[in-house]
Amino acid sequence: MSIIIRDCGAADIPAIAEIYGHWVSTGLASFEYAPPGAAEMARRREAVLAGGYPYVVATDAAGTVLGYAYASAYRARPAYRFAVENSIYVRPGGTRGGVGRRLLQALVARCEAGGFRLMVAVIGDSANAGSIGLHGACGFSPAGLLPAVGWKHGRWVDSVLMTRPLGQGDQAPPPEGR
């Protein structure tokens, strides 16, 4: 299957809302309880882009959205401005086909080009072997575990923290002007 990675456009929002809605309703990757609608997902996309962060989608040759990924501020305080948190979701039934890897690789490249120095993955559920494995395969290292930090679907859920240096990481001062 041909996978095309491109910047997310407004027309992609209905498919993104559908993908995210599935994982909110059935999974533990997101700690939201109710799937947000397309209008809210559009607002969130605009906030990501307004912050100067990348937002990408993967499509097949026919233009069907297979997944999406974006980076956002890790924390709001100025000292954190060189760190980003990533989010990545793949269409149900589309995992383990290379979509997630291609999305994450593209997101890393765009964040490096933007002068960011560290990417943080906050993975819902310590049993989420797929996401943990994907991040590990893309250069992320374990950074910690927040045990039983969330309550969803009738059980306590952990968050796994993983990090990946971007560009020169902590080996040089950050770029000027960010």
Q: How would you describe this structure to a colleague?
A:
There is one protein chain. With 178 residues, the chain is of the alpha+beta class. The chain has a single domain (4-171), classed as 3-Layer(aba) Sandwich (Aminopeptidase). The chain has four helices and seven strands. It is globular and about 40 Å long.
Let me know the number of strands. Answer: 7
Number of helices: 4
Helix/strand-derived class? alpha+beta
Per CATH, the architecture is 3-Layer(aba) Sandwich
How many structural domains?
Answer: 1
Beta-strand portion reads: 25-35%
Fourth CATH level, the homologous superfamily: Gcn5-related N-acetyltransferase (GNAT)
- The first-level CATH class name: Alpha Beta
Name the quaternary structure: single chain
Look up the CATH topology.
Aminopeptidase
User: What Rg is obtained from the alpha carbons, in whole angstroms?
Assistant: 16 Å
Q: Which word captures the global form?
A: globular
**Residue runs with pLDDT of under 50 for 5 or more positions:** none
Share in helix: 25-40%
Spatial arrangement of strands, main beta sheet? 1-2-3-4-5-7-6
